[in-house]
Recover the amino acids of this structure.
């Protein structure tokens, strides 16, 4: 009697599983080629206010409360670093012009402000976020790969876009890899996200790396105007690792901005 | 109990979509499935997966597929092992969270998977206590 009940129960579980497995597969197939993108758009519009409210409610618990003075000092420091980068840039530009190097023209960009509606990190806000959700999407002209900035700081790039929302991979994400150079010494390498910080790797041993030097984007723009403009600040070198036996040297980079404190970011759109 | 589960799912879903990558929804589904062993969890897994995909801008259906498949695999283990135990929950929630993060977040993160495990274990212990208290009350009544 009990055996037959178990058998019936098992059959019921199997049938339910097969039903929902097929339903999941059909849903996945339908939404994979964006044929039913409007359904996603409707769902997003319905859920966006809830998501915004949840973020607004929980974000204060996850953002540590720095003293006002420290905040002010950090802002001043950012300003000074920005001035330093600008000064160095002008010097480099002058040098380049003197050497009759033609500067690559970067196509005109427009800054689109977007509100952060989600900030996902590994430990839920006690660390640097690796993903940001923004309230702007493809209807606002955003595309995958668009660069996200705040002032002169690189925040990340758009990873996924839907009609009303977009997801940004921040520079500290392990998925983030970008060519970069140091401002003072001009060393070239690859900046890689490390969840908390950024790692500046693949720098030739012949190049010079110094702590406190500023790391900026090297500039990587394709003919359509997409990509990273040069000179966006990634962070400051805090430690250099150099071994004569190794192929490359590397450095640890600390971001100059507390992304957790941001509520608005800007997207470079063509 | 039903309200508690709905609250848990809603909170987990929106927290997962806004402030953390720890797979709360997956862990909650796993615990419920292990404790109830009810096929009614499959529709919940499907709809929660769809909602999670909408909120995190993933292709709709992917998360549902993962949830449904994983829960079914857990059900298959029920024939060989006692799945309603803490060690089983610990191992399966860790593996599941690790796979989930690898597939959907493209990150092989031990810490996040461990956070998923911790959440699952705590929830399992809590649910066990709640269930025991409820059944005791029913017995006395």
């Amino acid at each position: 009697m009990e055996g037959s009940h178990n058998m019936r129960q098992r059959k019921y579980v199997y049938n339910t599983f097969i039903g929902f497995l097929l339903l999941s597969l059909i849903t996945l197939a339908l939404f994979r080629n964006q044929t039913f993108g409007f359904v996603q758009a409707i769902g997003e519009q319905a859920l966006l206010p809830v998501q915004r409210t949840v973020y607004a409610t929980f974000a204060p618990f996850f953002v540590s409360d720095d003293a006002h003075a420290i905040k002010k000092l950090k802002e001043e420091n950012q300003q000074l670093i920005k001035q330093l980068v600008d000064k160095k840039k002008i010097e480099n530009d002058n040098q380049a012009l003197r050497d009759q190097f033609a500067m690559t023209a970067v196509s005109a960009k427009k800054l689109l402000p977007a509100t952060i509606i989600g900030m996902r990190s590994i430990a839920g806000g006690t660390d640097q976020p690796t993903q940001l959700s923004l309230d702007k999407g493809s209807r606002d002209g955003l595309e995958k790969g668009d660069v996200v900035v705040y002032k002169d700081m690189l925040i990340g790039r758009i990873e996924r876009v839907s009609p009303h929302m977009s997801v940004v991979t921040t520079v500290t994400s392990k998925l983030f890899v970008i060519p970069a150079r140091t401002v003072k010494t001009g060393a070239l390498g690859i900046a890689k996200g490390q969840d908390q910080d950024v790692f500046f790797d693949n720098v030739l041993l012949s190049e010079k790396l110094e702590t406190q030097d500023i790391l900026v984007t090297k500039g990587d723009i394709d003919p359509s105007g997409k990509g990273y403009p040069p000179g966006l600040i990634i962070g400051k070198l805090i430690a250099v690792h150099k071994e004569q036996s190794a192929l490359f040297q590397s450095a640890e980079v600390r971001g100059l901005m507390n992304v957790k404190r941001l509520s608005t970011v800007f997207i470079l759109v063509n | 109990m039903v309200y508690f589960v709905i609250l848990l799912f809603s909170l987990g879903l929106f927290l997962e979509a806004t402030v953390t990558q720890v797979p709360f929804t997956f862990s909650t589904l796993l615990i419920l499935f292990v404790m109830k062993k009810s096929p009614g969890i499959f529709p919940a897994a499907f709809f929660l997966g769809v909602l999670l995909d909408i909120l995190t801008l993933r292709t709709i259906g992917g998360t549902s597929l993962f949830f449904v498949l994983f829960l079914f695999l857990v059900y298959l283990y029920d024939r060989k092992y006692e799945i309603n135990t803490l060690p089983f929950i610990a191992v399966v929630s860790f593996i599941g969270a690790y796979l989930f993060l690898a597939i959907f977040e493209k990150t092989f993160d031990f810490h996040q998977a461990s956070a998923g495990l911790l959440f699952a274990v705590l929830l399992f212990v809590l649910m066990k206590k709640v269930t025991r208290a409820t059944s005791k009350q029913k017995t006395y009544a």
In short: Chain B touches chain A at residues 14-15, 17-22, 39-40, 42-43, 45-46, 49-51, 54-62, 64-65, 68-69, 71-72, 75, 106-107, 109, 111-112, 115 (CB under 8 Å).
